[in-house]
Amino acid sequence: MTQTPRAPRALVPWAHVADLMDGWPDELPVAVYDGTGEPPPDLSAVRFYVLPYAKPEATALLARMPALEAVQSLSAGVDKLLPRLPPGVVLCNGRGLHDASVAEHALSLILAVLRDIPHWVRRQDDHRWAPHFTRSLAGSRALLIGYGSIGAAVEARLLPFEVEVVRVARRARPGVHGIGELPGLLPDADIVILTLPQTATTTGLLGAEQLAALPDGALVVNVGRGGTIDTAALLDQTASGRLYAALDVVDPEPLPADHPLWRVPGVLITPHVAGGSATFYPRAERLIAEQLRRFADGRPLLNVVDRA
Amino acid sequence: MTQTPRAPRALVPWAHVADLMDGWPDELPVAVYDGTGEPPPDLSAVRFYVLPYAKPEATALLARMPALEAVQSLSAGVDKLLPRLPPGVVLCNGRGLHDASVAEHALSLILAVLRDIPHWVRRQDDHRWAPHFTRSLAGSRALLIGYGSIGAAVEARLLPFEVEVVRVARRARPGVHGIGELPGLLPDADIVILTLPQTATTTGLLGAEQLAALPDGALVVNVGRGGTIDTAALLDQTASGRLYAALDVVDPEPLPADHPLWRVPGVLITPHVAGGSATFYPRAERLIAEQLRRFADGRPLLNVVDRA
C-alpha cells in the first residue's frame, strides 16, 4: 500500500498505473489498495474508487466513503455490485477488458472437451500411451448466445476453425437472432456458447426444455454467468451422457465439494477464471489511467452503466 | 470386409467411399480392408492400395501384391513407409487431409497449457474450487517452425488470438525465415510450434543449444514428428521448470511407462492423436474417391511423392 501525504481522493488497485500517467495527477491525490491487507485509514475524501478485481469483499469500503462520486469496476458484469452502490454514485464497468481473456478461455474449454484433453491428462498421470481418435471442432455449428463484445471475440476465434457461427442476442438485429428464436435453433446446434450477463431475462435461460431440444452429443459451454443455466437440468442431461458441458461459471459458485456435477465424465469445470488471465492486466491498467485523467479533468468517464 | 466377385484390383479402407462415387468403378474391382481382421485372400491382382490409416502393420500386405502400381497413404508424413515400398510403385501421400485436425490439436495443446487445463482437470477430480489467474495466449509471439499446409492452418487459427506469428521453414522465402536463422529468432519466442516431417535435416533440430536459447517460461509444442526434438534436452529444460512443453509426438513412440517425461508438471502429452480426429475422415474419403476415379481412368494421381 502506497499513501500520499494528503487524504486520498482516489483509490486504485495497482501502483504502476502511475507509470502510464507520468505520475498521479496533482489535483487528485491517489492511494493504492489492492483488496488485501489494510486499506488507507482515512477514506473520507475518496471521490473515485477503482474496485480491486475479483475481491468482492472490497465493496465493504464503500460505506466509509461519504464523498464518493464514481466507482470503476473491472468486471464486465456488475449484477452483484449494483444493489450495494449508494444512490447518485456513477458506476463504470470493465466492458472490453475481459474480451480477449474470456474468448480465449471459451476456446480452451471447447477444444479441451472435443479433443479429449481431460482424458489425456488422466492417461498421462497413469503413464499410459493409449491413442484413440477424437471429435473435431471443424465442421461444427456453434450457437453463440450473447453477442456483445465477448461474443464477438469468441466468434472471431471460432471462425478459422471451420465453424459455422449462429448468433443469438437478447434483441434481434440484422445477422443476429433474437432470444425468442432459440427453440428453432437449438436442435441444430453442435455447440452452445453462453456469454450472457445475469439479468431477469437470462436467469435459467437454458432449462430442462431447452437442453432437451439440443441434439445428442451437443456441447454446452458457459463463460457468462452460472445462473443462466438450470444446473439440475444440465446435471440430468450430462450425467446420462447425452450432452457434454464445459463450464467456467456455475450455479452455485463456488461449487460445493459434494456437488455431483464435479463427477460427471462429460463435464469440464474451471473455477470462474476465464476473465482474469494475464492479458487482462495491461488492458485494465490502461483503462484506469484513462479514467483517472478524465476524472481529474472533469471530463465524462467511459463505460458508464445506466443504473435506471 | 466386403469382397467383389472378381479378384480385387484396388483395396480401400472404407466401404462408404463407394457412396461418394455412385458405386465402385466397373473397370476396377474394389475390396475393402480397414487394417483389422483378415485381408482378402487373393491380392495378386491389386494395382492400387489405399493403406488403412494409422495401421502401420497393414504395410505387410505390400509383399503379397505383385501387380501393385500405386499406394495411397493417408498420412502427411511418409518417412517410415518409403523404405518399405517396392521400387517403381507410385506413392501418394495424405497432404492436406490432416491440416484442420492437426492445427486444431495444436491450438488445443497451446491453450490447455497456457490456461492451466491440466491443473483444473486434477482439481475437478479433487472436487476443489480454487481459482487462480493464468497466463494468456494473447500478446504472445509464436515461432512456427515448418510452414507447409499444416503450418499455415496453425497460423490461421492463431492470428485471431492476438498472436504475432513468425514463420520459419526449411527454405527461406518472402515472409518466411530460413531454418538457418533460428539462433536469432529463438530468444524472442514465447511459443515454438513444430509441424515438421522427420528428415535428415529436421532430426534433432531442437537440441540442448536451441532449447537453451529460448526465454524462461517459453512453451515448446510439437505436432510434427517426435525426432525433431532432442528428448533428453527437453526433459532437462522442462523438469527444471524453465520451459513448458505440449507434445503430441515424442521420441521414442510410444513413450514407455517408465519414461520420466510423463511426470514433468509443465509437460502435457497426447499420444499422437492430432491428425486423426473426426474431421479427417470425410476429407480422406473424398481424396480416395478422387484417386480411384483417376486411377480407373488412367489419369495422373494427386499428391504424388517425389521418391528421388
Question: What are the defining features of this structure?
Answer:
homodimer, about 300 residues, alpha/beta, Rossmann fold, seven-stranded parallel sheet, five-stranded parallel sheet, 8 helices, elongated, oxidoreductase (chains A, B), NAD (chains A, B)
What's the rounded overall pLDDT mean of chain A? 95
SSE succession of chain A: EHEEEEHHEHEEHEHEHEEH
CATH topology group of the largest domain in chain A:
Rossmann fold
What is the CA–CA distance across the termini of chain A? Answer: 35 Å
Radius of gyration of chain A: 22 Å
**Looking at the chains present, what oligomeric state does this protein adopt?**
homodimer
Helix content of chain A: 10-25%
Would you write up a description of this structure?
The structure is a homodimer of 308-residue chains. Helix content of chain A is 25%, strand content 14%. In chain A, 45% of the residues are buried. In chain A, the strands form two sheets. In chain A, strands 8-7-6-9-10-11-12 form a seven-stranded parallel beta sheet, with helices on both faces. A five-stranded parallel beta sheet of chain A has the order 2-1-3-4-5, covered by helices on one side. In chain A, strand 10 (219-222), helix 7 and strand 11 form a beta-alpha-beta unit. Chain A is elongated. The first copy, chain A, folds into two domains: 10-97 and 279-297, Rossmann fold; 99-269, NAD(P)-binding Rossmann-like Domain (Rossmann fold). By secondary structure, chain A is α/β, with parallel strands linked by helices. At the A-B interface, helix 2 and helix 3 of A face helix 2 and helix 3 of B. Chains A, B: Keywords: NAD, Oxidoreductase. Chains A, B: Residues 107-274 form the D-isomer specific 2-hydroxyacid dehydrogenase NAD-binding domain. Chains A, B: Residues 59-305 form the D-isomer specific 2-hydroxyacid dehydrogenase catalytic domain. Chains A, B: This is 2-hydroxyacid dehydrogenase.
